[in-house]
Write a structure and sequence with these properties.
single chain, alpha+beta, Four Helix Bundle (Hemerythrin (Met), subunit A), Nonspecific Lipid-transfer Protein, Chain A, four-stranded mixed beta sheet, two-stranded antiparallel ribbon, 10 helices
Amino acid sequence: MQQAQDFLDESEALATLVSGLSDADFEQQTQFKHWTINNIIRHLHGWNIAVGLSLESPDAFEDFLREMASGIRGGRLPDFEARYLDGLSGVALQEQWIEKARAVAASFGQADPKLRLKWVGPDMSAISSITARLMETWAHAQAVYDVLGVERVDSDRIGNIVRLGVNTYGWTFKNRGEDVPGPMPRLRLTAPSSAIWDYGEGEDLIEGSASEFCQVVTQCRNIADTGLSVSGPVATNWMAVAQCFAGPAQDPPPKGARHRA
């Protein structure tokens, strides 16, 4: 699956970004829920372990879910992840995380894309599962780029995230207990390669950078902090609450809350 290679490439990009950091640097607090860089890399590592279990050992994955459910009861997810990884942090964490990401990419690269895998919510196909790992890696990495003051340079592999945004248009509203307001607005997005990506046939229009669209649907940015052009009530409504990741409905960060240092 190309998505497995895209996941690996995104992981390698983040590994390169943090490769020069000291153990103390990993304790820098980001703008994402006050998580440190350690929290973010632990989160990615823990759930890469989980997705590997879902592919290779469904019973072990069920054990992981039970341990997680017990571990976060009355606590925070980062605290469980720190305990689950025995406090692994800093450079040692970075090394184990990227090693596991490479192994996961290799396993999924040879898997049947249609294979059904267990996950926290409904079962997913293998191709959807590794695409979700790509999306989460890309989204959480944004907070690291931001706190380090590094301008991110994307590649066209973010097309996977654009498609997730498109595919979750209706779900975004249903997940909030709301009616879908109408046909998906038309998207006219400029890819990192300068190609134009067109989706949808609605009268409303969202136009601009594909990278910024990805930032909005992953809730890395408030729509007001992007240069996206949004016209029409349906498009405006969608961009105010867009969510391409699973779980309970969440609101995007307030205007100005997340930015490059």
